User: What shape does this take?
Amino acid sequence: MSHLQVAVLRGGPSEEYLVSMKTGAAVLAALAESGYQTKDIVITRQGAWLDRGIIREPENALKAVDVVFVALHGSYGEDGEVQKIIQRLGIPFTGSRSF
Assistant: This one.
């Protein structure tokens, strides 16, 4: 069993919100099944970050995570914006860097 805390970002302010929610749910299930500790972070259509249903600033939502799995589709998740935030916090993440 892994002790890594993996945050999964899903949702987001794009037209692909629902697809991202499904992708993120599948990733969360697969990670949990593989023994990882997970943290489900939903980004609303308006861009608010929800950690256990509570609006938090990204740096607070991502506090104490070891790696971020970016399950966002469309703008914000694929345009480098969320990657800039994660890079600024110095947390490793999946996918391409912000540029």
Observations:
- The CA atoms of residues 4 and 66 lie 6 Å apart.
- The first strand starts at residue 5 and ends at 11.
- The chain has a mean pLDDT of 91.
- The chain is about 30% helix and 25% strand.
